[in-house]
Amino acid sequence: MTLVPLTRPARLRPGARVAVVSPSGPVPADRMEAGLDILRGWDLEPVEMPHSREVHPELDYLAGTDEARARDLQTAWCDPSVDAVICARGGYGAHRMVDLVDWAAMRAAGPKVFVGYSDITVLHEAFAGRVGLATLQGPMVGTDTFLKDPDTQESLRATLFEPESVRTLGLPGARGLVPGRARGITYGGCVSLLAADLGTPHARSSARGGLLVIEDTTEDPYSIDRILTQLLRAGALDGIVGVACGSWAGCGPYEQVRAVLADRLGPLGVPVVEELGFGHGPTTLTVPLGVPAVLDAPADGGPATLTTEVPALV
């Protein structure tokens, strides 16, 4: 299966209602309040879903029960007054609730903006495969990076309101690990979550023509090796045209991580960009998923970029 561009939702306007959900882990109240205040400062109307601050009674790494988390997401999405759904944080739990969502009802509700990263990768894949919707891998309202880093905030704000102004992505340190230039459809997220999706009923059968966007956190270099090897052995990377790597926060000395990326991805013979500036690092750029884009990794060592051919939102 060759990847094709997905349906892009509408950009936000001042006064738009934004539902905040916690599909994975719980969020401390002070972080949630601070994140909601930032959204209000953008002239958005945040709407907290009922279980967004809940903690599972026995498994405290989950934000409430699987059924409650799935219900919050579905209710928010199917509410015609809601223009966007932004996740509060990642953690763990999306795999447990993704199949409890009525994806036919989600598809029937029509396109809207969906934002998140990390564990939310599971839901990005579900929106792509089951709804045919382009989504935003971007910062979440209860995370430190969103609360403290102005560049992270501005990347999301501009993408939501003025998406044509942020079509080219890449922090100054982004460079080509494997030089080249490629055009494809963006997809991906947290690489360990992509590997965890393999073999599940609705996992991608292939990603031919895809520009893979990957990052992760607190995975040792050997673990990143294992994850990439699993994806390679499963054929999940067959036919991809390029790879954009983000942050690898807490993944050991970056020189070792870099060696693993070169060893596992280099033989694919496609351009590979490192340190583009998204994911769990100190700055989290918002990356559109499901849109045509060009990955440019100059051979002369100049700044590498990912440029979408269309704005993330219409």
Search tags:
314 residues; 10 helices; globular; 6-stranded mixed beta sheet; alpha/beta
What does this structure look like?
The protein is an alpha/beta fold and 314 residues long. It is 31% helix and 22% strand. It contains ten helices and 14 strands. The protein has helices at 29-41, 66-78, 94-97, 103-108, 121-131, 144-148, 150-161, 191-197, 221-233, 254-265; strands at 17-21, 45-48, 84-87, 113-116, 135-137, 168-169, 175-178, 180-190, 210-217, 242-249, 272-274, 287-289, 292-297, 305-308. α1 (29-41) links the parallel β1 (17-21) and β2. α8 packs parallel to α9 (221-233) and α9 runs parallel beside α10. The chain is globular. 53% of the residues are buried.
C-alpha Rg (nearest Å): 18 Å
Please report the distance between the alpha carbons of the first and last residues: 26 Å
Shape field? globular
Number of alpha- plus pi-helical segments: 10
Parts with pLDDT < 50 across at least 5 consecutive residues:
none
Please list the strands of the largest sheet in the order they lie side by side. 6-14-13-8-9-10-11-7
Category by helix and strand content: alpha/beta
Instruction: Give the rounded overall mean pLDDT.
Output: 97
Order of helices and strands: EHEHEHHEHEHHEEEHEHEHEEEE
Number of strands: 14
Quaternary structure classification: single chain
